[in-house]
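ingest -> validate -> predict -> emit
validate: passed (alphabet ok, no gaps, 152 aa)
predict: started
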Amino acid sequence: MFARTFVLTLVMIAAPAAAQTAAKIPAVAPSIPRASFIANMDGEFARMDVNKDGKLTKQEIEAYQHVSALQQIQARNRAVFAALDTDHNGQLSFDEWAVKTETKFRDADADKNGYLTRAEYATTAPVRKAKSARCACGAAPAAAAVTETGEE
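emit:
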């Protein structure tokens, strides 16, 4: 439980730095020719097809997704740690942690009274990106669109 809380706190404190890193990635992927797209998809299939039988099982897909998600989490954690480790020695000193914590508190304390209200504290949570209605390839979603009221 402590480790989970620590990681969550680490992400919350370093979210602005991670957002700066994410800002360097273009929001819209460049155009990709059909042949390149097909080659990429064939490569994905080959990487998932562990037993090389030309078919994907549910277990192969889930294992691939698990590894991919883990790699994304590890990359994000490295970026967050690098943003906090200002002296680049591979360790977070209390001072490095405290500077980020103080900055985050100061930014959240809108009325500058030295206390965070619930509303002010809520601004310290990491901002989640809204899910796109389109995949990275630009194709429209297969499922029916749902309105803001939840109706199809």
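Residues 58-84 form the longest helix (27 residues).
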